[in-house]
Structures are given as structure tokens and as C-alpha cells.
């Protein structure tokens, strides 16, 4: 079965609808999805960009983006509430997701984080909010949070983020097919799935 | 018949596929399109942004964008050749398009400019290239170029660009429906056409 990597950043607005859409679209397309949580902050920093969201650099673009995300969520039947502050600190959630993915609960956790953040306007940098989400998934929140704050997972997230950079990723969500094609944006999820299914000699 | 405004900037890469796609998609959707050439430079300037293309601020994003535009053009069967320098000076083409639209040749001219620029890598700031395009449309190139360099058309382009700003436009291509909804990007052309056709009480 062809595969797509789904590169997600928990602070990213458009990663929310992508996370909510990808499972059913990939099932329909018969494409396997590998969820790859990473951190955009270090990538922006290395590019000499403000660590803030790109949407905060341009007020007109920011106004459009919030309206557009809300319009998009309405169309998909997803709740939407703008988190304040934006962007939310996303490293803790990314580290927890890295623990959860090989254990089989990472995707549910990621979706729950996006729902809390952009559906409920919750503070995802708050360990208590993370604990609540983990407990809601019947997981040992205390043990997971302790591990998420340890050096091993921090190093893993740094490594994953360096890999994102090597793949040419500069924003989220991004999708990468097995032949290395990069697609940026929730808008491009369908295109990435279609690309993943192309016959191997079509390139 | 419902209508959509198509806000285009001649320096904008993604305005090229949008210009090539919009006529047939709008015909199919039974939506009228009003072409609105404008200038992004003054909008970037007012926002305190570099006058350069946003794609030049981030090398990784720029690399992606050129690959993506070429991939998009290949998919649409459109020729693609990166113009050098990028962005190309676009004010002369915008002024000529403003002359041509009320005279009925503006859309053909705009498409010819995009084909020359992004299909042929031509210099669209060069009056000789504009003259060639105008002559190819059986128009009086010398008379049109003289008018395009006059104060009246320059003031008109400034006015149009101020209107774009009031509509919240910050990039190109953009689409605006009759109820003021803004959609940004070639990706969103279909969504804008669908929005234009919504029943008036659906909002």
C-alpha cells in the first residue's frame, strides 16, 4: 500500500482540519499515513524568521486566515474557537505525540489536542490540559508527562525537526510521499494522496 | 448570474494557472468573472513588508513554490519557464490590462502576458514585449503603450489597488464574491465559484 507522511505542528491552524480529514480520506484512497509531529519554531529560527506565526507578520493575512479557518471548519462541521495567545506553545504536545505514536495512541492524542486547541480554545502548553487529554484516552498521564519532559524525547523531537528541514519542509501541515514529493497545506492533502498512488514509472 | 471578482497581479506565479483555468471553470459553474488587475507592491509596502516576492524571503518556501508551480503547470498541460529576475516588474502590464478590459481585449491580453512570462520566461516589464503581445492581438500597440504610460491610467491602477486593500486583499490571485467573501490562492478558485452560487440566505 502506498504511504504518505503527514507532518504536523500542534501550533498550526491548518493542521487542525488536515488532522481531522486525513484518516478517512487516506482510507478511501487506500494510502497508509505516517503521522510525523515536528516543531516549526526551530525551522523559522534557522531561516532568520520571527518565531511568531507567519500569520502575525501581516495583519491583513492574519484576518483572512482566521476567517478562512473558521469558514473551513464550518464547512467540515468542526467546532472552531481561536486560541489566545496564538500561536500556542506546542513542544509539549509534540513530545507526547512522539511517545504515543509507536504505542498506538498518538493519532487519537493528536486529534484530541487539535480539538482542544482550535475547537475549544484551550491552552495546549499547559501540562494540566495535556494530562486531561491523556486521562481521557485512559492513559497514565503522570508517567507520560514525566517522560515527555525528559531529555530522550526532547532529543527525538529535535532529530525529527532536523529531518523535516532536510525534506524541505517550511510550514505545516505538509505531506511527503515515498518518492520525496512535498505538498504544503491542508488544501493539498488530496493531491498528496493522489500523488502517492501514481504508478511508479509515471514520474 | 452570480459573479466573482478575480484579482490578479502580473508578477504572481499562482495567478498564471488561475488565469488559465478561470474562464472554463466559471462557464461550467455559470458564474460571471470580472478581471481586476492590481498591484501588490504598494500593499506590501504599506504593510512594512519587503517589496520583493514573499517567496524570496524564505529559501525553502521559494524552492517548494517553484517546484509546485511547475508540477501544477505540468498537471494542467501548461508550459512553464521561471522568469529571471523574479518577481518581474508588473505595473506596465497591469496598466495595459486596465485599458483593455473595458474594450473587450483585456482578458486575452492578461492570458498572453502570463503565457509569455511564466510559459516563456519573457521580460514583461519590457515595453517591446508588451508591444509584441498587443500586436499579436491585432491592436495598436504604440497608441496603447502611450496611454498606459499616462497619468490617467497610473491613477486608475492606484485607485484599484487601494480598493484591493479595502477588500482585505494581501496576495494574488484572490477571488471576491458579491457578498464580500475573500478567497486567496489558485487552490481556492473552485471554492470561490461554489460560494458565489450559494443561495443568498445561506450565509
Series of secondary-structure elements of chain A, N-terminal to C-terminal: EHEHHHHHHHEEH
How can the largest sheet of chain A be summarized? 4 strands, mixed
Whole-number count of domains of chain A: 1
Percentage of β-strand residues of chain A:
5-15%
Q: Could you tell me how far the N terminus lies from the C terminus of chain A, measured between alpha carbons in angstroms? A: 18 Å
Q: Which protein chains are joined by the largest interface, and how many residues does each one contribute? A: A-B, 25 and 25 residues
Kindly state the mean pLDDT of chain A as a whole number?
94
Classified in CATH, the superfamily of chain A is Glutaredoxin
The main sheet of chain A orders its strands as 2-1-3-4
Derived from helix and strand composition plus strand pairing, the structural class of chain A reads: alpha+beta
Quote the CATH topology of chain A.
Answer: Glutaredoxin
What's the CATH class label of chain A?
Alpha Beta
